[in-house]
Amino acid sequence: MSVISQHSPTSPAVSERKRLSLDWLGVVPFMLFAVMFLVLPTVYLVAGAFQDAQGNLTLANLANLFQPQILDAYWISIKISLASALLGAAIGFCIAAAITLGGLPRWIRAPMITFSGVASNFAGVPLAYAFLFTLGRTGLVTYLLVNIFGFNLYSHGFNLLSFWGLTITYLYFQIPLMVLIITPALDGLKKEWKEAALILGATGPQYWRMVAFPILWPALLGTMLLLFANSFGAIATAYALTGSSLSIVPIVLYAQIRGDVLQDPQLGYALAFGMIIITGVSNGLYIWMRARSERWLK
């Protein structure tokens, strides 16, 4: 009887195995989606970067990445990504600190987090048009500044279809993303740490410089890397806003694959391969920094 009970289909061990096997069904759609729309396209792009038009193996596509115009496109993209990441991290950190550790009313936090969740995903063509209608040459803010304050942005050198114009546009989704990611890290700062620092004679700035920031530094640096990768790969917003007037890597890539004059799909695959390397390194460093930060905050 004992042998039969050990192998009974209704035993707890068998039931647990069945439950675990059924639990895996919940992640199957995600795995299929990731394979079809992330893994396979990435493998296809990487393979295309090492093939010529006839499908033969070659390194010529990677060598073409060192053309001056291609290097300039990468450099402009890196500068825009750095600027938007640094500004987004600084402004987003101040907002997150104000709603978590500051003296603002507690009811402000929930609407701010909700708005950040929505705004961080608002990008592409709608975002470009929103900024054109707001800060374009005939935009609402431009019109109000001229007619109320007599100040013309464009007469003082501002141009929405430029480096700083695109950077400001990216900040619309970079700042909310920073708020969402850094808020849990700020929540992880224990009150006892600040109380102990103040009892030992530290001032508020000394607490932040010697206690809080060293603990938050991995999370801050990791989030900035994520923001960098987030803006480096953006194309829809930049293309709808600036067209071909600003040669960043995603626009050059689009021109090589879909263009009528500069069409060279193999060079486009090589450009995509370079972007994969840069964003992959950024995301990998973010994951590593995030893991280090979580160990401290636990």
Automatic annotation (TrEMBL):
PROSITE patterns: ABC_TM1. It comes from the Bacteria. InterPro entries: MetI-like, MetI-like_sf. GO terms for cellular component: plasma membrane. It is a multi-pass membrane protein. The chain crosses the membrane at residues 24-47, 74-101, 113-132, 138-154, 161-186, 206-229, 236-257, 269-289. It holds the Pfam family BPD_transp_1. It is found in: Cell membrane. The keyword 4Fe-4S does not apply. Residues 74-286 form the ABC transmembrane type-1 domain. CDD domains: TM_PBP2. Belongs to the binding-protein-dependent transport system permease family. CysTW subfamily. This is Acriflavin resistance protein.
